[in-house]
C-alpha cells in the first residue's frame, strides 16, 4: 500500500517536475534520505539508493518504488562509501540502467555518542572517513554525470529551462559544529569538513552548471540519528527547548530537498539550508 505522498512533501509541488530525471543517494535506506528520495520519486524521478546493508537497501528501494506507478528505483547494497571503486561502480550502474544521474544526495553518515577521551583513533577515523571521504567519493564518482546533466538542461549554457534542472548536489550535514557539542567531537569535525567541501564544489563546479548545497537537519523525529543521540525519556523536554517547540519531520527535510533541486533553487549555490526549528540559535545542544 503506497504511502500518502503528502506525508512526504507539501502539496505545493507539481507532480511531474522531475520526470525522466534520476537521483542517486548514498545512505538512501536511512530514515531521512529515504524520505528525500521518496518525495523525488513522487514528483517523477527515478532513483538509485546506495547502502551498506544489502537487504535493507534493496527492500527500501522496493518500498520507495511504490510511490509512483512505473517508477524505477534501484537499491545497490554492500557499498561502503569509504570504498571509491564501489561507489564508482554504483554510479556507472545507475547511469547505465536509468540513463543519467541528475541529482545527488550525499547522505551516508556515521555517528555515536562518546566523549573525546573515549574515542579511539580508529573510531575518529571511521566517522571522518564515512562522512568526509564518503562525500568526496560520492561527488567524485558522480560528477561527470552531473556535469553532463547540467549542460544538457541549460538552454544558454547558464540558465535551466522550467523544470529542466540537473547537475545538483545536496550534502546532508548537521548543526553540531556551529557551536561546541559535547560527545560529538568526531561528527562535528566531520560535518565541518562536509560543509567546506560543499562550498568548494559550488565555487569550482558552478561555472559548469553544478549547484552544491547543504541541508543541515536539526533533531528529526523517528530517525536513527535521534535514536542514537538522545535518550527517549529526555526527548519531550529537549523538544520544548527548540524555538518551534517540537522535533522536525522527515517531510520537512524532503521539502527542503525539493526546494533545492527544483526551479525554486536555481540560483542557490554553496549555501546551507538549516532545517531545525531554530534550535542551533539557542544552545546548539538538543
Ligand atoms: C566509542 C565506538 C562506538 C561508541 C563504535 N565505536 N561505536 N567508540 N563509542 N559508541 C568504535 C569502534 O569500537 C571502532 O573502534 C570504530 O568505532 C569503528 O567501529 P566498527 O563498528 O568497527 O566499524 P564501522 O562499521 O566502520 O562503524 C562505523 C560507525 C558505526 C560510525 C562506528 O556507528 C556505523 O556504522 N554507523 C552507521 C550508521 C549511523 O551511524 N547512522 C547514524 C547517522 S545519524 P576500535 O578502536 O574499537 O577499532 C547522524 C546524525 C548527525 O549522522 C547529527 C544529527 C544531529
TrEMBL record:
Top-tier EC class: oxidoreductase
Key words of the record: NADP, Oxidoreductase
The keyword S-adenosyl-L-methionine belongs to this UniProt entry's keyword annotation: no
Entry's Gene Ontology molecular function annotations: 2,4-dienoyl-CoA reductase (NADPH) activity
InterPro entries listed in its UniProt record: DECR2-like, NAD(P)-bd_dom_sf, SDR_fam
One annotated Gene Ontology cellular component of this protein: peroxisome
SUPFAM superfamilies on file: NAD(P)-binding Rossmann-fold domains (SSF51735)
Pfam families with a match to the protein in the record: adh_short_C2
Domain of life: Eukaryota
Example of a GO biological process term: fatty acid catabolic process
Catalytically driven reaction(s): a (2E,4E)-dienoyl-CoA + NADPH + H(+) = a 4,5-saturated-(3E)-enoyl-CoA + NADP(+); a (2E,4Z)-dienoyl-CoA + NADPH + H(+) = a 4,5-saturated-(3E)-enoyl-CoA + NADP(+)
EC number(s) recorded for this UniProt protein: 1.3.1.124
Record has Phosphoprotein as a keyword: no
PANTHER family: PEROXISOMAL 2,4-DIENOYL-COA REDUCTASE (PTHR43296), PEROXISOMAL 2,4-DIENOYL-COA REDUCTASE [(3E)-ENOYL-COA-PRODUCING] (PTHR43296:SF2)
UniProt-recorded name of the protein: 2,4-dienoyl-CoA reductase [(3E)-enoyl-CoA-producing]
